[in-house]
Design brief:
This protein has helices at 15-20, 61-70, 98-109, 140-157, 171-181, 202-208, 228-240, 254-263, 274-285, 291-305, 315-324, and strands spanning 31-38, 44-47, 50-57, 75-81, 114-119, 132-134, 137-139, 161-164, 190-195, 244-248, 268-272, 309-312. It has 325 residues and is of the alpha/beta class. Strands 1, 2, 3, 4, 5, 8, 9, 10, 11 and 12 form a 10-stranded mixed sheet that branches. Strands 6-7 form a two-stranded antiparallel sheet.
Length: 325
């Protein structure tokens, strides 16, 4: 042939050759596994819309922790579901709230396991919103006071990282000041800096029993159509003292992950959310896809987009599959 072209296939000839030039690698250290802890005893209930994910009472938490640690997963993200809720989400910042008690339990049995406490009010409020309500509106500044109390209570219980997910303006600055004043200068903040008002949260709201009882969260979570706003949000949180930046959801927002990665030097975390998980599980249970190949491709795509860490309900399966390689 008397014409020239590039021969890219030279580097794809064998499995070892492809491995030699592979640019993106998944490691078990990349994964953060979410846990849903509930008050009560002898509770291990599978969440109907999230196969293989459970509500767990503290007396059933130890076997789950044993499995997590045996797989090499080093971080968990705690969500609490209380027995009782009220207008102000008192259970979120009670010293013996469910997340606080779960944190103490985990630290008693696995002190080196990183406990990340989700810092929000929606699971604890009777109205299901992430702050104080007045005349149907979510009030920003009064909500910050309760979020600070929650963060300090969680840190006092032993949480290694505080992860505020409420999307109130100024929440990182308020929580950083509150933690510092309480003596927790070394407790980092993993901010849900870029959190969209997404339909992909549906199964989570079943799991956390946190669906709003009126309206929606579009006045404080972001419009899915917006890109530049994500950079403004991330910049504010960085200035206010965030130590990590979360982008949530994951798969539909890989462009945002790349933008955040390109503009900021903090560790970037992607949340592979419940709707993404449940769609894969449903397709796999119907035999429509190869679950392992799909999950590993999804997680690799998230890492390739720029995420340093991945919050995912697939963490245990992915850790198992990585061990088998």
């Amino acid at each position: 042939m008397n014409f020239q072209f590039d021969r890219h296939r030279r580097l794809r000839q064998t499995a070892n050759m492809r491995a030699l030039v592979r640019e993106t690698h998944l490691h078990v250290d990349d994964f953060i596994y979410p846990l849903f802890v509930v008050e009560g005893n002898q509770i291990k209930n599978e969440i109907p819309s999230m196969p293989e994910v459970y509500h767990l009472s503290l007396d059933n938490l130890k076997p789950e922790l044993d499995e997590i640690v045996s797989l090499g997963i080093k971080s968990v993200l705690l969500f609490g579901i209380p027995d009782e809720k009220d207008e102000c989400g008192t259970g979120a910042y009670h010293d013996h709230g469910i997340v606080q008690e779960a944190t103490r339990f985990i630290k008693q049995h696995y002190p080196d396991l990183i406990v990340i406490a989700d810092t929000c009010l929606c699971e604890y409020t009777s109205h299901g919103h992430c702050g104080v309500i007045e005349n149907g509106d979510v009030l920003n500044d009064p909500s910050l006071e309760l979020l600070v109390k929650t963060a300090v209570s969680q840190a006092s219980a032993g949480a290694d990282i505080i992860a505020p997910s409420n999307m109130m303006d100024g929440f990182v600055a308020a929580i950083r000041a509150g933690l510092d004043e309480a003596g927790f200068m070394n407790v980092p903040i993993m901010s849900y800096a870029v959190k969209y008002a997404s339909a992909f949260y549906g199964p989570f709201r079943d799991a956390a029993q946190s669906a709003p009882q009126f309206g929606d969260r579009k006045s404080y979570q972001m419009d899915p159509a917006n890109r530049m706003e994500a950079l403004r949000e991330a910049e504010s949180d960085t200035k206010e003292g965030a130590d990590f930046l979360i982008v949530k959801p994951g798969m539909p927002y890989l462009d945002i992950v790349r933008d955040v990665r390109n503009h900021f030097n903090l560790p970037v975390v992607i949340y592979n959310v419940s709707g993404e998980y449940s769609m894969v599980k449903a397709a796999a249970l119907n035999g429509w896809i190869d679950e392992q190949k799909i999950v590993m491709e999804m997680l690799t795509g998230m890492k390739r987009a720029g995420a340093d860490l991945i919050i995912t309900y697939h963490a245990k399966d992915a850790a198992r599959w990585l061990k088998e390689e």
